[in-house]
C-alpha cells in the first residue's frame, strides 16, 4: 500500500544555489513508521531531481490522509 507525504526540503547542489528550498508531495511504495529513517524520503527526492542523496536535506514531512 502506497503512502503520500507533504515534504519541505532544500537542494544543496550548486545548480540550485539561487532558489534551493522546495515543497511538494511524494509517494512512497509503503508507509513510513514514525521512527523511520528520513533518508528514504531524501532518496526519492534526489532521484526525482537526478541528484546524489546527500544533495537533498529534508526540512519537514507529514503524511497526507
Helices and strands, with pairings:
Elements (H helix, E strand, L loop, with lengths): L2 E9 L9 E8 L10 H10 L7 E8 L2
Antiparallel strand pairs: 1-2, 1-3
Could you characterize the architecture of this molecule?
The mean pLDDT is 84. Helix content is 15%, strand content 38%. The chain is of the alpha+beta class and 65 residues long. The longest helix has 10 residues, at 39-48. The protein has one domain: Ubiquitin-like (UB roll) (Roll), CATH 3.10.20. It is elongated. A three-stranded antiparallel sheet has the order 2-1-3.
| CATH class descriptor name | Alpha Beta
- Biggest sheet, in brief? 3 strands, antiparallel
Helix fraction bin: 10-25%
CATH architecture: Roll
Determine Rg (CA atoms, Å): 12 Å
Give, in order, the helices and strands.
Answer: EEHE
Brief overview, please?
The chain has 65 residues and is α+β, with helices and mostly antiparallel strands. It has one helix spanning 39-48; strands at residues 3-11, 21-28, 56-63. The chain has one domain (3-63): Ubiquitin-like (UB roll).
